Predict the 3D structure of the following.
Amino acid sequence: MTLYTTIHFHNAAEGREDEYAAWFEGEHRRDLARLRGFRSADRFELTAEQIMPDIAQPWRYMSVYDFELSQPEIDLPALGPLLAAVRDDGLIDDARETERIYSYRMYSDWKSGPNHQPHRPFSSMFVIPANFVAGMEEEYHRWYDEIHIPEVCRVPGFAAMRRGRLADVQIEPRRFCPGSEIVMCGHQTDDLLFSIKDFSARARGVSPSGDQMEPRSKAGSFARTVHFFRKISGPDFWDGGMAYAGDLSVYPPDFREKGA
Protein backbone atom coordinates (compact mmCIF):
# COMPACT_ATOMS: atom_id res chain seq x y z
CA MET A 1 0.00 0.00 0.00
CA THR A 2 1.14 3.53 -0.80
CA LEU A 3 -0.01 6.78 0.75
CA TYR A 4 -1.85 9.11 -1.63
CA THR A 5 -2.98 12.58 -0.64
CA THR A 6 -5.58 14.60 -2.52
CA ILE A 7 -5.76 18.34 -1.84
CA HIS A 8 -8.93 20.21 -2.74
CA PHE A 9 -8.44 23.97 -2.94
CA HIS A 10 -11.79 25.74 -3.23
CA ASN A 11 -14.16 28.52 -2.26
CA ALA A 12 -17.58 27.90 -0.77
CA ALA A 13 -20.51 29.75 -2.26
CA GLU A 14 -21.14 33.05 -0.49
CA GLY A 15 -23.64 32.69 2.31
CA ARG A 16 -23.52 28.87 2.16
CA GLU A 17 -20.31 28.28 4.11
CA ASP A 18 -22.16 26.67 7.04
CA GLU A 19 -24.07 24.44 4.66
CA TYR A 20 -20.82 23.29 3.09
CA ALA A 21 -19.33 22.57 6.51
CA ALA A 22 -22.41 20.54 7.51
CA TRP A 23 -22.18 18.53 4.29
CA PHE A 24 -18.50 17.80 4.87
CA GLU A 25 -18.98 16.64 8.47
CA GLY A 26 -22.14 14.67 7.73
CA GLU A 27 -22.97 13.20 4.34
CA HIS A 28 -19.45 13.56 2.95
CA ARG A 29 -17.73 11.76 5.82
CA ARG A 30 -20.26 8.93 5.57
CA ASP A 31 -19.57 8.58 1.85
CA LEU A 32 -15.81 8.74 2.36
CA ALA A 33 -15.94 5.92 4.90
CA ARG A 34 -17.22 3.63 2.14
CA LEU A 35 -14.31 4.31 -0.21
CA ARG A 36 -11.60 1.66 -0.42
CA GLY A 37 -8.35 2.77 1.13
CA PHE A 38 -9.78 5.90 2.76
CA ARG A 39 -7.79 6.93 5.82
CA SER A 40 -8.66 10.48 6.84
CA ALA A 41 -10.06 13.84 5.76
CA ASP A 42 -9.66 17.28 7.30
CA ARG A 43 -10.80 20.72 6.30
CA PHE A 44 -8.82 23.95 6.63
CA GLU A 45 -9.38 27.70 6.21
CA LEU A 46 -6.86 30.25 4.96
CA THR A 47 -5.15 32.14 7.78
CA ALA A 48 -4.47 35.85 8.02
CA GLU A 49 -0.85 34.97 8.88
CA GLN A 50 1.18 34.21 5.75
CA ILE A 51 4.92 34.02 5.20
CA MET A 52 4.57 35.27 1.60
CA PRO A 53 1.77 37.84 2.07
CA ASP A 54 2.20 39.42 -1.35
CA ILE A 55 1.42 36.30 -3.39
CA ALA A 56 -2.08 35.42 -4.54
CA GLN A 57 -4.18 33.35 -2.14
CA PRO A 58 -7.12 32.43 -4.39
CA TRP A 59 -8.68 29.85 -2.06
CA ARG A 60 -10.39 30.37 1.26
CA TYR A 61 -10.64 26.64 1.97
CA MET A 62 -8.57 23.50 1.61
CA SER A 63 -9.60 19.89 2.20
CA VAL A 64 -6.92 17.20 2.62
CA TYR A 65 -7.77 13.53 1.94
CA ASP A 66 -5.45 10.61 2.69
CA PHE A 67 -5.76 7.16 1.12
CA GLU A 68 -3.72 3.96 1.41
CA LEU A 69 -3.92 2.42 -2.06
CA SER A 70 -2.29 -0.30 -4.11
CA GLN A 71 -4.25 0.52 -7.28
CA PRO A 72 -4.77 4.29 -7.35
CA GLU A 73 -5.92 4.17 -10.96
CA ILE A 74 -8.99 2.23 -9.75
CA ASP A 75 -9.71 3.76 -6.37
CA LEU A 76 -8.53 7.38 -6.38
CA PRO A 77 -11.07 8.63 -8.98
CA ALA A 78 -13.95 7.55 -6.67
CA LEU A 79 -13.53 10.83 -4.79
CA GLY A 80 -14.44 12.75 -7.95
CA PRO A 81 -18.20 12.10 -8.00
CA LEU A 82 -18.51 13.10 -4.33
CA LEU A 83 -16.97 16.49 -5.05
CA ALA A 84 -18.90 16.82 -8.31
CA ALA A 85 -22.20 16.38 -6.46
CA VAL A 86 -21.55 19.25 -4.05
CA ARG A 87 -20.31 21.35 -6.97
CA ASP A 88 -23.51 20.61 -8.87
CA ASP A 89 -25.52 21.65 -5.80
CA GLY A 90 -23.91 25.08 -5.98
CA LEU A 91 -21.97 24.88 -2.73
CA ILE A 92 -18.64 25.50 -4.48
CA ASP A 93 -18.00 28.91 -6.01
CA ASP A 94 -16.04 28.27 -9.19
CA ALA A 95 -17.16 31.32 -11.15
CA ARG A 96 -13.52 32.24 -11.82
CA GLU A 97 -12.40 28.63 -12.25
CA THR A 98 -10.22 28.79 -9.16
CA GLU A 99 -11.08 25.30 -7.87
CA ARG A 100 -8.14 22.90 -7.91
CA ILE A 101 -7.96 19.17 -7.08
CA TYR A 102 -4.46 17.72 -6.99
CA SER A 103 -3.49 14.17 -6.01
CA TYR A 104 0.01 13.20 -4.89
CA ARG A 105 1.90 9.97 -4.37
CA MET A 106 3.59 10.67 -1.05
CA TYR A 107 7.23 9.79 -0.50
CA SER A 108 6.47 9.03 3.15
CA ASP A 109 4.02 9.74 5.92
CA TRP A 110 4.70 12.54 8.42
CA LYS A 111 8.30 12.92 9.54
CA SER A 112 8.17 14.25 13.08
CA GLY A 113 10.47 16.73 14.75
CA PRO A 114 11.12 17.03 18.49
CA ASN A 115 8.14 19.37 18.94
CA HIS A 116 5.56 16.97 17.58
CA GLN A 117 2.88 15.58 19.87
CA PRO A 118 1.75 12.77 17.55
CA HIS A 119 -1.41 11.80 19.42
CA ARG A 120 -2.80 15.33 19.21
CA PRO A 121 -4.16 17.14 16.12
CA PHE A 122 -2.46 19.78 14.05
CA SER A 123 -3.63 23.33 14.60
CA SER A 124 -2.74 24.44 11.09
CA MET A 125 -0.71 23.48 8.06
CA PHE A 126 1.25 25.06 5.27
CA VAL A 127 1.36 23.57 1.80
CA ILE A 128 3.84 24.40 -0.95
CA PRO A 129 3.26 23.41 -4.57
CA ALA A 130 6.96 23.24 -5.41
CA ASN A 131 9.49 22.31 -8.08
CA PHE A 132 13.11 21.21 -8.22
CA VAL A 133 15.62 22.60 -10.68
CA ALA A 134 16.03 20.40 -13.74
CA GLY A 135 18.87 17.94 -13.32
CA MET A 136 19.06 18.45 -9.54
CA GLU A 137 16.30 16.17 -8.28
CA GLU A 138 18.59 13.95 -6.21
CA GLU A 139 20.12 16.94 -4.44
CA TYR A 140 16.65 18.42 -3.89
CA HIS A 141 15.40 15.31 -2.09
CA ARG A 142 18.59 14.94 -0.06
CA TRP A 143 18.42 18.57 1.09
CA TYR A 144 14.82 18.22 2.22
CA ASP A 145 15.19 14.86 3.95
CA GLU A 146 18.57 15.39 5.61
CA ILE A 147 18.64 19.14 6.26
CA HIS A 148 15.48 21.13 5.73
CA ILE A 149 12.83 18.91 7.32
CA PRO A 150 14.84 18.48 10.56
CA GLU A 151 15.58 22.22 10.85
CA VAL A 152 12.02 23.34 10.05
CA CYS A 153 10.60 20.90 12.59
CA ARG A 154 12.66 22.52 15.35
CA VAL A 155 10.86 25.86 14.93
CA PRO A 156 8.40 26.52 17.79
CA GLY A 157 5.01 25.16 16.81
CA PHE A 158 6.25 23.41 13.66
CA ALA A 159 5.68 19.72 14.27
CA ALA A 160 6.07 17.46 11.22
CA MET A 161 6.53 17.48 7.46
CA ARG A 162 5.87 15.23 4.51
CA ARG A 163 6.34 15.49 0.75
CA GLY A 164 5.02 13.92 -2.42
CA ARG A 165 5.04 13.90 -6.23
CA LEU A 166 2.08 14.76 -8.44
CA ALA A 167 0.37 11.44 -9.19
CA ASP A 168 -0.28 10.00 -12.63
CA VAL A 169 -3.95 9.69 -11.67
CA GLN A 170 -5.83 12.97 -11.26
CA ILE A 171 -9.45 13.87 -10.52
CA GLU A 172 -11.59 16.06 -12.77
CA PRO A 173 -11.68 18.94 -13.36
CA ARG A 174 -8.01 18.74 -14.30
CA ARG A 175 -6.46 22.18 -14.25
CA PHE A 176 -2.93 23.55 -14.37
CA CYS A 177 -0.75 22.60 -11.42
CA PRO A 178 2.20 24.94 -10.76
CA GLY A 179 4.38 22.31 -9.08
CA SER A 180 5.37 18.70 -9.60
CA GLU A 181 6.06 18.41 -5.86
CA ILE A 182 4.03 19.05 -2.72
CA VAL A 183 5.51 20.02 0.64
CA MET A 184 3.25 19.90 3.71
CA CYS A 185 4.08 21.03 7.25
CA GLY A 186 1.76 20.42 10.20
CA HIS A 187 1.77 22.87 13.11
CA GLN A 188 0.83 22.60 16.76
CA THR A 189 0.65 26.18 17.98
CA ASP A 190 -1.84 28.67 19.37
CA ASP A 191 0.29 31.56 18.07
CA LEU A 192 0.94 31.01 14.38
CA LEU A 193 2.33 34.51 13.90
CA PHE A 194 5.06 33.83 16.51
CA SER A 195 5.92 30.55 14.79
CA ILE A 196 6.10 32.14 11.34
CA LYS A 197 8.28 34.98 12.60
CA ASP A 198 10.75 32.60 14.19
CA PHE A 199 10.78 30.48 11.03
CA SER A 200 11.82 33.61 9.12
CA ALA A 201 14.31 34.63 11.84
CA ARG A 202 16.00 31.23 11.78
CA ALA A 203 16.26 31.39 7.99
CA ARG A 204 18.05 34.75 8.36
CA GLY A 205 20.21 33.62 11.29
CA VAL A 206 18.73 36.09 13.79
CA SER A 207 16.49 33.90 15.96
CA PRO A 208 16.75 34.45 19.74
CA SER A 209 17.03 30.67 19.98
CA GLY A 210 20.46 30.81 18.42
CA ASP A 211 19.41 28.25 15.80
CA GLN A 212 20.17 29.08 12.18
CA MET A 213 18.95 27.28 9.08
CA GLU A 214 21.32 26.16 6.38
CA PRO A 215 21.31 28.18 3.14
CA ARG A 216 18.50 27.19 0.83
CA SER A 217 19.58 24.53 -1.65
CA LYS A 218 20.10 25.66 -5.24
CA ALA A 219 18.17 22.53 -6.23
CA GLY A 220 14.92 24.08 -5.01
CA SER A 221 13.22 26.18 -7.67
CA PHE A 222 11.84 29.59 -6.76
CA ALA A 223 8.78 28.65 -8.82
CA ARG A 224 6.71 27.91 -5.73
CA THR A 225 3.99 29.39 -3.54
CA VAL A 226 3.27 28.96 0.18
CA HIS A 227 -0.21 28.79 1.70
CA PHE A 228 -1.06 28.62 5.43
CA PHE A 229 -4.40 27.16 6.54
CA ARG A 230 -5.90 26.50 10.00
CA LYS A 231 -7.80 23.31 10.81
CA ILE A 232 -11.58 23.79 11.03
CA SER A 233 -13.00 20.25 10.89
CA GLY A 234 -13.49 17.26 13.13
CA PRO A 235 -14.18 16.88 16.84
CA ASP A 236 -10.58 17.33 18.00
CA PHE A 237 -8.75 20.67 17.93
CA TRP A 238 -5.33 21.77 19.15
CA ASP A 239 -5.50 23.46 22.56
CA GLY A 240 -2.00 22.85 23.88
CA GLY A 241 -0.32 26.23 23.60
CA MET A 242 2.85 26.04 21.51
CA ALA A 243 4.56 22.70 20.99
CA TYR A 244 8.26 23.30 21.46
CA ALA A 245 11.04 21.10 22.78
CA GLY A 246 13.32 24.10 23.38
CA ASP A 247 13.31 27.09 25.74
CA LEU A 248 10.75 29.77 24.92
CA SER A 249 12.07 32.03 27.69
CA VAL A 250 14.92 33.22 25.43
CA TYR A 251 12.43 35.07 23.24
CA PRO A 252 11.81 38.72 24.22
CA PRO A 253 8.26 39.67 25.29
CA ASP A 254 7.74 41.75 22.14
CA PHE A 255 9.06 39.09 19.72
CA ARG A 256 5.61 38.37 18.31
CA GLU A 257 4.93 42.03 17.62
CA LYS A 258 8.35 43.08 16.32
CA GLY A 259 9.98 39.87 15.19
CA ALA A 260 13.73 39.40 15.38
